[in-house]
Amino acid sequence: MTAPGEVSLGCYVYGITSADLAVPAELRGVGDQAVDLFPLGELAAVVSPVDPDWTRAGRADLLAHGRVLDTIAELGPVVPVRFGSVLRDHDAVAGELLEPGQERFATMLQELAGRAQFTVRARYEEQQVLTEIVAENPAIAQLRKLTRDRPGDSSYGERVRLGELVAAALEAKIATDSDVMLAELEPHVVGINIRESVGIDRLLDVAVLVEDQHRAEFEQAVEDLAAAFAGRARLKLIGPTAAYDFVSAEESWA
Predict the structure, then answer these.
(1) Rounded Cα–Cα distance for residues 132 and 169 (Å)
(2) How far is CA 199 from CA 30, 160, 196, 204, 205, in A?
(3) Are 38 and 10 in contact, with CB atoms under 8 Å apart?
(4) Are the C-beta atoms of residues 185 and 221 closer than 8 Å to each other?
(5) Which end of the chain is more exposed for a tag (fewer CB within 10 A), N or C?
């Protein structure tokens, strides 16, 4: 019971992990609050104190949420809970989260054991890919030449057609190059989630689940791809992180 004058704090929930995991004492979460575990049987919720009426949900809090989950994921499997999830107290964490989800969370944690998520993002060198498209498509090269020095009004139709042809050629190039990249990555991963990306320089944005014992081979495959596409595309490897794209505790209260 809250004593008169005391402020009753709720529980900000980051995820679910194993009860025997040791949280670093220096780990801070949303609102710069200390992060701890609230255990129930073999499971535990990763929590920190928070005002029950917390509604800030700013960039700093989002970064803190991800930082906590990624730190926990380096120590052991963790099932992420959606950003901004707050329960009124520890009793609610037990009764509304851990108890009803006990079997399901235990299965998820077993599936994640010894695995981590990585994200591979590839972006074209824009000028290079446009140069390739013009060189590989005579119709595009001809329309580009015809419209280069003509006023916009007098070449409107040709410019529209040029844009359509470039867009179609770009989609075809993306399909070909992304297939090459995926073929190199797939043998080294146990799960894959292709995300949508936008922009003329887009090539690939994919989350993958990698077994710890094959991490070195996976990272080498990414390095090999970066070398193979040097001058044409830039690759970025992000991770290891919590498995955001593969498991999630989407509870009704979240």
Answers:
(1) 10
(2) 33, 18, 11, 11, 12
(3) no
(4) yes
(5) N
For residue 196, give Cα distances in angstroms to 70, 86, 138: 23, 30, 30
d(CA 145, CA 137): 13
Q: Which long-range contacts link 95-104 to residues 24+ away (Cβ below 8 Å)?
A: 96/251, 96/253, 97/13, 97/16, 97/45, 97/249, 97/251, 97/253, 98/16, 98/38, 98/40, 98/41, 98/43, 98/44, 98/45, 99/40, 101/16, 101/249, 101/251, 102/40, 102/41, 102/43
Tell me: the pLDDT tens digits for 190-235? Answer: 999 999 988 889 999 999 999 999 999 999 999 999 999 999 999 9
> CB atoms < 10 A from the CB of 35, how many?
23
Distance in angstroms (rounded) separating the CA atoms of residues 98 and 169 = 51
43 forms beta bridges with 18, 40
Dist. CA 103–CA 44, nearest whole Å: 13
What pLDDT digit, counting tens, does each position of 183-200 carry? 999 999 999 999 998 888
Contact assessment for residue 75 and residue 210, using Cβ atoms and an 8 Å cutoff? no
